[in-house]
């Protein structure tokens, strides 16, 4: 038993498991920023007074929320890069990494949009009415009154989206990012099949360690920052 | 939402209507312009050639690629959602058990499988079953991974469904002399299950989407079939688009069913019927603010 553990530990060091997790964290970080920006814009569109913007926002969310992430990632590489020769970086690895980030961001923006909209739902009607009563047009009302409260109400669902994004960053394997965790786990098991349980548990526990603090943090933030009403 | 949406801005007057009109026209032009640019770029690369698209709608394409692929996707999703339901009921009630040990073990199992990426589990089962020379390893790996992940999500749905029932329901059961576990089984669970039906249908959307991960472990589902067809016919872009459209239509119909169920059932249970955001973590983190619950129910 102790031998098995130390052997697994040796393997983890030999194959640079931490480096693989670092790739996933980087994917998550950039995709989170991009999808937050895109998702906020989409949420604004969906609550705006302009019907065409509302329609476009709804269409975006319905399309990307219902498409498997794997298709989007495959499309990024085989379609965008393979067929249309879209290149975002001079080297292969950097190019696939950026394509994967964009694929992740495009997909999760739909969920960020819905999280923020559910945050908007927590803002009482009186707040919006008060904003209108003092003569604020839509955009200033959204910027000064609605969104600041909506973000506080949306922390828990946004946290869930972030957790999903971190776990979904493994799907970058479908976008030919070969240095991330799921690809490395596959390689490690294929070459060291005796240690299949130990290798899987190493990666699984790594994700548990990453996910649980995010959950705890967003739960405590959402209760601490909640608007007391 | 509809009442609140209208509250976010005044009913547009003549000037605002003009501005909105202009906004609509400008927005429309921008959307059309982007579409035109994309089409132009596609046209320059020769991706709009008619035969690239028409070959998708031949009998061969459907008979040998898309229909078997779709069948495999639906087969995996069907087995997975049934298994996940069983898993979820077992561990969801386990987390509500009177025995501390059962509660703790169920809690650990559920939290573990909720935190591990589905793809890691799929690859693990695929290799494990492959080493043991099991037939149909890709299919089983897809189903096992989906059952474990979605089962633990459903377990949380069961737990929160029982937790969201009015307190009086459980108290009434105890008051007429039922034991706590009898109360759970004959009073709380039936109502919680009805309340979570819409969320269950939403979870089916997650299962269907995640079944496409099977492509990575060579399970011959819709995405892989589309990819094989596209590589063989030199129209990978077009066949991926077709596969995506099939997924979007099925999932969109399921979302409509979930929404309809949520409205239909809301009068039939003391619990709140919600459909969940459908990203794979529909349950609120335990102890999170209650106002997240109507998130999707309010969305149209």
From TrEMBL, chain A:
Question: Which Gene3D superfamilies does this UniProt record tie to the protein?
Answer: MetI-like (1.10.3720.10)
Q: Which CDD domains match?
A: TM_PBP2 (cd06261)
Membrane-spanning ranges: 20-45, 66-84, 96-113, 195-216
Please give the superkingdom of this protein's source.
Answer: Bacteria
Instruction: Recall the GO molecular function terms of this protein's record.
Output: transmembrane transporter activity
Keywords of the record, alphabetical order, are: Amino-acid transport, Cell membrane, Membrane, Transmembrane, Transmembrane helix, Transport
Annotated InterPro entries: AA_ABC_transptr_permease_3TM, ArtM/GltK/GlnP/TcyL/YhdX-like, MetI-like, MetI-like_sf
Domain ABC transmembrane type-1: where? Answer: 21-218
Looking up PROSITE patterns in the UniProt record yields:
ABC_TM1
Does the entry feature the keyword Membrane, yes or no?
A: yes
> Biological process (GO) annotations?
amino acid transport
| GO CC list | ATP-binding cassette (ABC) transporter complex
Give the subcellular location. Answer: Cell membrane
Q: How does it sit in the membrane?
A: Multi-pass membrane protein
Question: By its UniProt entry, which Pfam families does this protein fall under?
Answer: BPD_transp_1
Instruction: Family membership, please give it.
Output: Belongs to the binding-protein-dependent transport system permease family. HisMQ subfamily.
Name assigned to this protein? ABC transporter permease subunit
Q: Which organism is it from?
A: Cellulosimicrobium composti
From TrEMBL, chain B:
- Please give, as recorded in its UniProt entry, the membrane topology of this protein: Multi-pass membrane protein
Naming one, the record's GO cellular component terms include:
ATP-binding cassette (ABC) transporter complex
According to the record, the residues making up region (Disordered) are 276-300
Sorted keywords for this record are:
Cell membrane, Membrane, Transmembrane, Transmembrane helix, Transport
| Cited InterPro entries | AA_ABC_transptr_permease_3TM (IPR010065), ArtM/GltK/GlnP/TcyL/YhdX-like (IPR043429), MetI-like (IPR000515), MetI-like_sf (IPR035906)
GO annotation, biological process: amino acid transport
Which segments constitute the ABC transmembrane type-1 domain?
70-258
> According to its UniProt record, what is one Pfam family this protein matches?
BPD_transp_1
Regions crossing the membrane: 20-43, 73-92, 104-127, 139-158, 236-258
Which GO-annotated molecular functions does the record name? transmembrane transporter activity
The record ties this protein, via SUPFAM superfamilies, to: MetI-like
From the Swiss-Prot or TrEMBL record, state where the protein is found: Cell membrane
Q: Belongs to which family?
A: Belongs to the binding-protein-dependent transport system permease family.
Question: This protein is called what?
Answer: ABC transporter permease subunit
Organism from which the protein derives:
Cellulosimicrobium composti
């Amino acid at each position: 038993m102790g031998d098995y553990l130390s052997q697994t530990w040796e393997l983890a060091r030999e194959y640079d498991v931490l480096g693989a997790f670092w790739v996933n964290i980087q994917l998550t970080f950039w995709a989170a920023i991009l999808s937050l920006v895109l998702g906020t814009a989409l949420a604004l569109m969906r609550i705006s007074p302009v019907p065409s913007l509302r329609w476009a926002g709804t269409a975006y969310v319905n399309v990307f929320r219902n498409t498997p992430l794997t298709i989007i990632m495959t499309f990024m590489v085989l379609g965008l890069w393979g067929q249309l020769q879209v290149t975002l970086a001079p080297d292969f690895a950097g190019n696939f990494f950026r394509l994967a980030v964009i694929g992740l961001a495009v997909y999760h923006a739909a969920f960020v949009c819905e999280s923020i909209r559910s945050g908007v739902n927590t803002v009482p009607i009186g707040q919006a009415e008060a904003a209108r009563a003092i003569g604020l047009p839509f955009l200033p009302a959204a910027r000064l009154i609605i969104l600041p409260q909506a973000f506080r109400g949306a922390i828990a669902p946004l946290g869930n989206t972030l957790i999903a994004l971190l776990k979904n960053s493994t799907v970058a394997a479908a976008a030919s990012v070969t240095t991330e965790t799921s690809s490395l786990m596959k390689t490690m098991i294929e070459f060291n099949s005796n240690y299949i349980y130990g290798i899987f548990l190493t990666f699984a526990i790594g994700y548990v360690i990453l996910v649980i603090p995010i959950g705890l943090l967003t739960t405590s933030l959402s209760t601490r920052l909640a608007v007391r009403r | 939402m509809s009442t609140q949406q209208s509250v976010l801005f005044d009913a547009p007057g003549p000037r605002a209507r003009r501005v909105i009109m202009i906004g609509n026209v400008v927005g429309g032009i921008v959307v059309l312009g982007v579409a035109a640019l994309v089409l132009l770029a596609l046209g320059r690369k020769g991706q709009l050639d008619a035969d690239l698209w028409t070959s998708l709608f031949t009998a061969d394409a459907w008979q040998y690629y898309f229909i078997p692929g779709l069948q495999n996707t639906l087969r995996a999703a069907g087995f997975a959602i049934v298994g996940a339901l069983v898993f979820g009921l077992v561990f969801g009630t386990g987390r509500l058990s009177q025995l501390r040990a059962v509660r703790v073990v169920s809690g650990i199992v559920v939290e573990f499988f909720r935190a591990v990426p589905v793809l890691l589990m799929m690859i693990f089962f695929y290799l494990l079953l492959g080493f043991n020379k099991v037939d149909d390893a890709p299919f089983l790996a897809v189903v096992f991974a989906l059952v474990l992940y979605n089962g633990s999500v459903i377990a949380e749905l069961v737990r929160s469904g029982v937790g969201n029932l009015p307190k009086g329901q459980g108290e009434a059961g105890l008051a007429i002399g039922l034991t706590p576990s009898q109360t759970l089984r004959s009073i709380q669970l039936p109502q919680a299950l009805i309340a979570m039906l819409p969320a269950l249908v939403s979870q089916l959307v997650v299962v269907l989407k995640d079944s496409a991960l099977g492509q990575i472990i060579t399970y011959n589902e819709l995405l892989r079939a589309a990819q094989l067809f596209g590589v063989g016919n030199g129209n990978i872009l077009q066949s991926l688009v077709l596969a995506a459209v099939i997924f979007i239509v099925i999932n969109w119909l399921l979302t409509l069913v979930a929404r309809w169920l949520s409205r239909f059932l809301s009068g039939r249970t003391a619990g709140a019927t919600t459909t969940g955001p459908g990203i794979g973590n529909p349950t609120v983190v335990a102890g999170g603010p209650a106002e997240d619950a109507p998130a999707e129910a309010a969305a149209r």
